[in-house]
Known about the structure:
The chain is an alpha/beta fold. The protein has two domains: 15-256, Type I PLP-dependent aspartate aminotransferase-like (Major domain) (Aspartate Aminotransferase, domain 2), CATH 3.40.640; 258-358, Aspartate Aminotransferase, domain 1, CATH 3.90.1150.10. Helices cover 35% and strands 16% of the residues. The protein is built from nine helices and 14 strands. The chain has helices at residues 15-24, 43-60, 74-86, 101-110, 225-230, 240-256, 258-279, 307-316, 341-358; strands spanning 4-5, 66-71, 93-98, 115-121, 144-147, 150-151, 156-157, 168-171, 188-192, 203-208, 283-284, 296-301, 319-320, 331-334. A seven-stranded mixed sheet has the order 2-10-9-8-5-3-4, sandwiched between helices. α3 (74-86) packs across α4 (101-110). The longest helix is centred in the C-terminal third of the chain and has 22 residues, at 258-279. The chain starts with a strand and ends with a helix.
Amino acid sequence: MRKYNFCSGPAALPEPVLLRAQEELLDWEGRGCSVMEVSHRSPEFEAVAARAEQDLRDLLAIPDNYKVLFLQGGATAQFSAVPWNLLGAGQKKIDFIHSGQWAKKAMEEAGRYGEVNIVASSEDRNFSYAPAADSWQQSEDAAYFHYVPNETIGGVEFGYVPEVSCPLVADMSSSILSQPIPVENFGVVFAGAQKNIGPSGIAVAIVRDDLLDRALPDIPRSLSWKVAADAHSMDNTPPTFAWYLSGLVFQWLKEQGGVSAMAELSWRKSALLYDFVDRSDFYSSPVAEGSRSRMNIPFVLADERLDKQFLQESEAAGLLNLKGHRSVGGMRASLYNAVPVEAVEALVNFMADFEKRVG
């Protein structure tokens, strides 16, 4: 029996997608071989790639003046790719909102190529809230503005899209496809696949056309968005199986009603868990109300000495990967699109029983 997986990534995949991949594993489209054994330049795989791109465009209502790129190296590679691709027009300042671990990693990498300006930071309260827009200190001549709409580790989510005069860059690794987004307000959106898109090994970048010619002259070929766009993401052999599986997830999402349906479901799931935690004296949320993530929900026990027992018993009950990140501690339940409501109900029931027995 499959268990309920609350892992932050690589995360749960929709069971219908896994079953279809299993069915097609040895004989894909009647070809007598796996999709992993088909040339990425064959007409058959080109059709897979084209459908995946179109389905993603449909799901997010991506305008025609944006390229959709399927890339290698995960979102972390884009920490390097973003400054390499956007600092070639002479501007060297980069505005950042410092909202947690993933913003910090992106800032450190960008600082190797440009001058980082921290517009706002929530470090003063251990990254437990999203800084309000009226606290920003923006640069007048920034090459771009980078933020993380949802911090996977801290469980903080921005309830708004920043309004800036330079290209807006968003790392949506843990929130993409969980709700509609105004793509036209962004210069670049990128995301690692292993949370809401598909398996690890591939990333997606959505890049506005006018930003493809701003790269530094000595940009590595493997990081160039223009090279990737000109080659339809196939300048070299891509991770074809991850691309294929991501495409199946996009099809599944459309069958569920698209990102609007996912948004409604995410609010329902997260409210179920937050409401229980807020009513309890045994559990608590370290994240400020109004900044709480729908995707990644950290919570702590009143007595941290019970953490080990909680994790052992929850795993025995079929509730997997609830341990919080090592930098934060406590627990964390990631409620991505493929995590069903029944999983959250089972978690809440377990938590109530655990509290009754040991609290």
